[in-house]
Amino acid sequence: MTNTRIAALDVGNDSIKAIFGELEYEVNIPNIIARDVEDRPVIGIEELDSKNPLDGIHIRVHSPALKENNVIYRVGNLATKSENATELDPGSSKSEEDQTLILLFATLALDAVKEENRKHFRQTKNVIDANYTLGTGLPLREVKEGKDAGYRSKLIGSVHQVEFLVTPKYQGMKINIKFDEVKVYPEGFAAYINLVMDNSGKIINKDLIDKRILIQDIGGLSTDIAVIKNRNVDDDKAQGFNLGVSESLEMIREEVRKKHGVELDSRRDVVEIITKKNDRNHIMVKGSRTSVHDITDRILLDLAKKQYRLLRNVWSKNSQTEICYFVGGGATVLKDYLKTLNNNLDGFNIDFFEDEKESIWMMANAYYKLIMDYVRRTEKLQQPKVDNSKKPVTN
């Protein structure tokens, strides 16, 4: 594993969460892209180099893995300001979308190009050759359909280049990305690993490992329900559904636009309105604080009822389940609605992560633990064996 850097990436439908190296760098970028031209105008009186690169990701991506190659994109915060910005559509497969790969390559390039990280790689003038050992994941439905193998093969064995164009601090830099290894994990299984294992591979939740549990991971475009028993994910019982929060967030955006004339840039803006600590479910309309509770409550309660129906159906087929954990960004958005429904209806033993960051970062943390465990085991196998037969005999 020499000259390779550990990367754990959760390409979520709302944003990409990534952890690098020895936990020394993490990044969160909105999952939004927009096609662009080479010389985008720089707005503002600040010098380009003084701005935050994460607010101005402007890149050309060249990769044999892409359907549309050698295209220029605005990514993340910069893309939200574009009229042609795209977010992943409900019903799409994460493993088959160019957008997933563009976000993945951009995030890796942002790690490689950081001044303090360049020591890990070979650099010649403005070109950095970066090698990664990657842990990532796909929704359970896509893994069951065998799409993980095709996704992995797109990444491994090729060179993927990200060229920074009008990006603060990094303009003109080119990053050649190669993968020494890529591990693609089912999202439900990863959530379980995160609950029971720490970063060094030790069991941290002994009470949980022998329980029969469900993990309902609510994402932007899909929901995975992992069924855990005998310390393993039951692949036959586990289910993936094409039901996430993205469609409901789009509905809220549209109703806010129609009723209040306010244009929210992205789904992430909607999430912030729903989950912020102060003035939750309020927006500013012509300078006045205005409630959008009527819109958010109606749409999110309807989605929570559908999610609760999924839980009820899976629990009925796994009647000896002891607890269900709700995880993911969608669980954070729907937590209050699901708790109210459960109190009024079946009264299942369910739990949420009160720390919103812990829930949102759960997949990235899980992939990090899994890829680190893989690296440790591989390095152990590669260590030279000691031949005791050749040791001198001592009296």
Explain what the structure shows:
By secondary structure, this protein is α+β, with helices and mostly antiparallel strands. It has helices at residues 98-113, 140-144, 147-155, 187-196, 206-209, 246-260, 267-275, 293-317, 329-344, 356-360, 362-382, and strands spanning 5-11, 15-20, 25-30, 33-35, 57-62, 71-75, 122-124, 127-138, 160-164, 174-186, 213-218, 223-229, 232-233, 239-241, 282-285, 288-291, 323-327, 350-351. It has two domains: 5-186, ATPase, nucleotide binding domain (Nucleotidyltransferase, domain 5, 2-Layer Sandwich); 210-360, 2-Layer Sandwich (Nucleotidyltransferase, domain 5). The strands form three sheets. Strands 1, 2, 3, 4, 5, 6, 7, 8, 9 and 10 form a ten-stranded mixed beta sheet that branches. Strand 5 and strand 6 form a beta hairpin. Helix 4 (187-196) packs across helix 11 (362-382), helix 6 runs antiparallel to helix 8 and helix 8 (293-317) crosses helix 9. The longest helix is centred in the C-terminal third of the chain and has 25 residues, at 293-317. The chain is globular, with a radius of gyration of 23 Å. The mean pLDDT is 87.
